[in-house]
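Researcher: Structure prediction, please.
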Amino acid sequence: MPFFFPETPDLPLPPGHRFPAAKYRMLRERAHAEGIFASAGLLPSPLATRENLLLVHDATYVDAMIAGEIGADAMRRIGVPWSTVLVERSLATVGGSIAAARAAIRDGISGQLAGGTHHAHRDFGSGYCVFNDLAVAALALLGEAGVARITILDLDVHQGDGTAALFAGERRVQTVSIHGEKNFPFRKYPSDLDIALADGTGDIAYLAALDRALGAVAAFAPDLLLYLSGADALACDRLGRLDLSHSGLMARDATVLRFARAQHIPVAIAIGGGYAEPIDETVEAYLGTFRTARAIYGF
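Model: Predicted structure follows.
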């Protein structure tokens, strides 16, 4: 029942940059200290191949990004500077989601300490997202081991515009998003189900929206659930604008995972965004997701 992590250094970012690159390393260090994955195992993510990426992305975009020949305007849209670490981490993030999805099919549960790059579109990246890891994983898994229907349940506070656009008209993949109505991205592409929440939405209203979302998932009856958990619905998140508590987020995770287990749907977790100050609050929320998974699945 292994989980995965990108074995790369922190992204090299200029001083004062808003993206909290250290959170992934902090998450891994705290998970190791706590022994969350001591039984399940925590493995380095394999790198996605060019062929994997071309399931979703335009070849010109993929090749330019990997070669470092991408334009300055395109990198500004992504929001971080190009670097070899960025490329390696992006490939590992996609590879980690593919590996976690396959492990989930086998074991019932898996995930990675990264992922959820849902703002990446076919031929451009956006919002700190280079390649769309869950979209690639979905298309890689369709047809494998009897997987005919996949749900991407996106509970990041920002709508998964890239994922929604990539799967418009694709009946084998259901896209479900619960997100802040007035938050980024300002142009939202329609998912199969979008539940847009007002600023300041708290635990009770959020969990009611989740019940509605899971009803739609149950009706679709997927063979695999790709769960983008997200930590940026926390009240203390700089970019979130919702008002969830840590206990509310853990109730969210427990609701999703108990649903998946009761419905016998394998689930792979990607952790999505988190921008709290201090960033320890985001790391704690990520840990809460994996603690909840361990409690429910017994790894």
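Model: The first strand starts at residue 3 and ends at 5.
Researcher: Thanks, that helps.
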